[in-house]
Structures
1.
Amino acid sequence: MVRIPTGTFLMGSDFGDADEEPVHRVTVPAFEMDVTEVTVAQYTRCVDAAQCTEPDSGNFCNWASPGRDNHPINCVDWNHATTYCKWAGKRLPTEQEWEYAARGTDGRVFPWGDSDPASQLCWNRWRTKEGTCPVGSYPSGASAFGLLDMAGNVYEWTSRRYCDSYAANRNCTDSRVNRGGGWSDEKPSYVRSSFRLGGNPTLRGNNLGFRCAR
C-alpha cells in the first residue's frame, strides 16, 4: 500500500459529463491505498479461507482462467469487493479518496498528467479480444502518489452511492460509484480521473474490479 498524505484538491470537471459538476474543493484526510488492483491470486486466498465467494467465470472473466493469477480480479460485484477488503483488514476507498489518489493536488486530467492516453495504460483491447493486463504493467501511467492502473485495466468499485451531480440538490440512487476506465474502453474521456459511473451493487462486469484502502 501507499500512504497518501492529507491534501486538498478540486474534485470534478467543467469539461466532462454533467455528473462531474460542479467542481468543488475537497480536503481528504491521510489514508493508504493499494498500489494495484486486487489480483486473482489475492482474491483466491480469501476464497480458500472460506471468507469470500467465487466471482463469475468465462466471457473475459479472470476467475478460473489459466495464467491470470497476476491479473485483476474482475466479474465481482460490490459485495464481493466489500467482503474481500474487510477480510484483508481494509475497506473500499471513498469516491473522494479515489479521485484524489488518481489526480493529486495539481488537477491533472489523467493519473500521469494531461496528455492523451496512449501507451500509459491497459485499454483499447476490445477489438483484439485480449481482456485485462497483469497489474502494474504500465509504470509510465503511475499517479503522482505512485499508484498504478488508476486508469484502464478494470473500473474500480468505491464505497459511495451514485448521485447524478455534486450539487446540493441532487438525485441519488442505490447504485455504487466505480472509477478508472477499463481494458475495453476506446475513448480517452472514459479513462479520465474525474469520469464516474454508477453500477447496481449486484453488477459483475468483465471490466470491473477494485482495490482497497484503509
2.
Amino acid sequence: MAFSGREGTPVTSEQFKADSPDVSEFRRDWERWHEGVEARRRSPYGFLAVTGIHWLTSTPTTIADVPGCWHVGTDGPEVLLGEGESLRIGDATRDGRIVLGDFDEHHPVRASWGDTEIEVARRGSSYIVRPRRPDFHVREDYEGTPTYPPSLQWVVTGRFLPHPEPVSVDVGTTIDGLSNTYESPGVVTFDIEGEAFELTAFDEDDELLFLFADRTSGVTTYGGGRELVALLPDGGLVVLDFNRSRNLPCAYTPFATCPLPPAQNRLPLAVEAGERLPLGHE
C-alpha cells in the first residue's frame, strides 16, 4: 500500500513504508487533495464557467458571448472583429482580422474579452470555441461533489509492463463520431482481494493517466467513467490510489468533449472509492 504526500502527489510504496503514516494523516492528506480538486473546479474560468460549445466551419458565424465573426480559413480559425471590438491574446490586444493559425489538441488558444475568457481548441480535424464566464449559473449554483470515504483498502501497488514502443490508442468521446488518439506507454497489472486486473496507461504530463469505468459507473458514479493519475513507475511499481478517482468534466457540463474509457479499462468490479455523482446531477 501507499499514501499521498503532503502536497497531494502520490508517493512510492517504499516511501510509504519508511514514513509509516497513520490513518488520520492519510485522511488529512486525501482531504487536502479533494479540496484542491474542488477549488480548481470552482475556479472563475473552470469547466463550470463554460457557457457553450460552438463548432467552427468555413462559413462565418457569430457566437453568443463572444465578439466578432468566426470561421475556419486556410490557416486555421479566424475571427473578424467589428468596429471598437478587440481581444486580449497573451500580452497583446488585437483588433480587426485575427488569424489564430493551426495548433494541436493539447495547446488551445485562450483570449479574453472583458470578463469573458474564450477558448479556441482543436478536436480532431475540427475547431471549437468555448466562452467561459465567472457569473455563469452552472458555476454559481454548483453544490459540490460527494465522495466515498477514503480507505487504505483502495490504495494498491501494481506492476508496470511497458510496451516495446508506445502504442497509439483511439479513444472514443462523449461526442458522437469524435475520437482522440492517446499514446500508451504500457499497462499496469494489480490485484484486489486476490483477483488480478489490468489497466491501460496513457501519457499525461510526465505522469500516467488511467481512464476507467467500473460497476459503480452510471449508478453511484458518473456513467462516462472517471480518471486517475499516478506517478511514473518506480522500480517497475506504480501506486494506484483509487481514492483519488475524479470525475471527468462531462459530469458537470454538456459543453465538454471528454474521452471515454477504452473497452480494456472497464473493470468488472465496483470501485467504491473516489468521487461520486455531483450533487444535483441529472
